[in-house]
Amino acid sequence: MAALRITVIGTGYLGATHAAAMAELGFEVLALDVVREKIEMLERGETPMYEPGLEELLRRHVAGFEGTTGRLRFTQDWAEVGAFGDVHFVCVNTPQKHGEYACDMSYVESALSSLAPHLTRPALVVGKSTVPVGSADRLSRMIAELAPAGADAELAWNPEFLREGFAVQDTLHPDRIVVGVRSERAEKLLREVYATPVGEGSPFVVTDFPTAELVKTSANSFLATKISFINAMAEMCEAAGGDVVKLAEAIGHDDRIGKKFLRAGIGFGGGCLPKDIRAFMARAGELGADQALTFLREIDSINMRQRGQMVELARQALGGGSFLGKRVAVLGATFKPDSDDVRDSPALNVAGQIHLQGGQVTVYDPKGMENARRVFPTLGYADSALEAVRGADVVLHLTEWREFRELDPARLGEVAKARLILDGRNALDPELWRKAGWTYRAMGRPTA
Ligand code: UGA
């Protein structure tokens, strides 16, 4: 049997990574994006975002480079996509709707309505985008109405669990593959696509449509729950004089709880967790799942409160008055390390709040400067941690880059106005800083 031919629709974070990974697995891949610039960039082997290993992977497969497999090509022609693919992966984004909690399905709907009329031969359309439960059922009816191939064109749902910063690794070696299918043929095709990772041990979970959709949103909600749980415990620790870092370590020794995602601090951000939990809330409300809605709302509000708590911690540390005339150094702008993404970044949010309250804020981030400047041009920016800290009344550590853990507190102490550091990520070594003469404070930890 001839090898399957794969198309990928949407070449953002998810699509670009998925397309390159499919080529790496040996498939011929044709990727489409409606934005020409995105395609031109990928054709040059470049990515619009910082993602370790992705450019190398692209350059191994994008047609046109010397020595590449040439298995990955790009197009803007829907008819070419329809004619080429046996399996079409839909990887467009589903952002939060402006001014609402629900997610915006317009990119998914537009991708499917553009593709379906070109499905003239047997094909499997596989949704990977994160969508509200019930969407796959609706979209499958849309394909049935529009595809000339009739019943030979069908839909499956295959959510994606990749993490920014680990996108390549997570796509090539997923810790599970979940497929929502309605036919044996769809399952068989997806088993063929994922034969390599499954052969290497990735579990392959077959479900119906709603379960596949819910697996994705509930996985992200569970991660969010862990973070908000530990942040609630940080509040308890502060009230009672305990240490949340020790507490997380101790409860994490229980395998049923686990050590991961129990780092207290300014909370979760990024393009996924916050919007997914809100879209999940909106959907729970529509479906009348009131307990789920109430539960999720608390997770979200604990998370948002952490940012304000950090601002308060800074205010108190500076004497409790206004930020006017205070120089505040902010280390970190991205929503997490090893990424240049500042979408819904808690770090940038805290920096912004202090700036709006009159503080003189100077930000440094190893990879996120360009994006941070774009979304928040009125903040001050420095080219290094040392420059950001120069003359500062207080230093805020807000994204836990390795570079910040490796800073020399003694050297920074020479340039800071006051040796006061607030660790919003509980990721620095308090003893190291205290030994160098700094006052170290963090959320959920006792003041020494
Ligand atoms: C998240 C999920 O981890 C992925 O599995 C999922 O596929 C992805 O969303 C998605 O839906 O596309 P990502 O957004 O890359 O991945 O970020 P995470 O590593 O989950 O971190 C999210 C936020 O939680 C960050 O702001 C991080 O600083 C924060 N966090 C994480 C904490 O505050 N404490 C922790 O203990 C862990």
Describe this structure in words.
There is one protein chain. By secondary structure, the chain is an alpha/beta fold. The protein folds into three domains: 5-207, 3-Layer(aba) Sandwich (Rossmann fold), CATH 3.40.50; 216-299, N-(1-d-carboxylethyl)-l-norvaline Dehydrogenase, domain 2 (Orthogonal Bundle); 304-442, Rossmann fold (3-Layer(aba) Sandwich). The protein has helices at residues 13-24, 36-43, 54-61, 78-84, 106-115, 135-146, 167-172, 184-193, 195-199, 209-240, 244-252, 273-287, 290-317, 346-356, 369-375, 385-389, 402-405, 409-415, 430-435; strands at residues 5-9, 28-32, 72-75, 87-90, 123-127, 153-157, 177-180, 204-207, 327-331, 360-364, 380-381, 394-397, 420-423, 439-442. Helix 1 (13-24) crosses helix 3 and helix 13 crosses helix 14 (346-356). It is globular and about 70 Å long. It starts with a strand and ends in a 6-residue tail after the last strand. Residues 130, 160-164, 220, 223, 227, 261-263, 265, 267-270, 272-273, 276, 335-336 line the site of uridine-5'-diphosphate-glucuronic acid. The site of uridine-5'-diphosphate-glucuronic acid (UGA) has 22 residues, from helix 10 and helix 12. Belongs to the UDP-glucose/GDP-mannose dehydrogenase family. The active site is at 272 (nucleophile). This is UDP-glucose 6-dehydrogenase.
